[in-house]
Amino acid sequence: MQKIIILDFGSQTTQLIGRRVRELDTFCEILPYNKFPENDPDVIGVILSGSPFSVYDPEAFKIDLAAIRGRYPILGICYGAQFMSHTLGGRVEPAPSREYGRQHLTTIDLDNPLFQGFEKGSQVWMSHGDTITALPKGFKTIAATESVANAAYQAEGEQLWGVQFHPEVFHSTQGSLLLKNFVVNICGSEQGWSAASFVDTTVAELKQQLGNDRVILGLSGGVDSSVAAVLLNKAIGNRLTCIFVDHGMLRKNEFQQVMEDYRCLGLNVIGVDASEKFFSDLAGVTEPEKKRKIIGRDFVEVFNAEAKKITDAKWLAQGTIYPDRIESLNITGKVIKSHHNVGGLPEEMHLQLCEPLKWLFKDEVRRVGRQLGMPEHLITRHPFPGPGLAVRILGDITPERVRILQDADDIYIRAMREYVCEDGEILYNKVWQAGAILLATVRSVGVMGDERTYEHPVALRAVTSTDAMTADWAHLPYDFMARVSTDIINHVRGVNRVCYDISSKPPATIEWE
Ligand code: XMP
Question: How far is residue 391 CA from its own chain's centroid?
Answer without folding.
Answer: 19
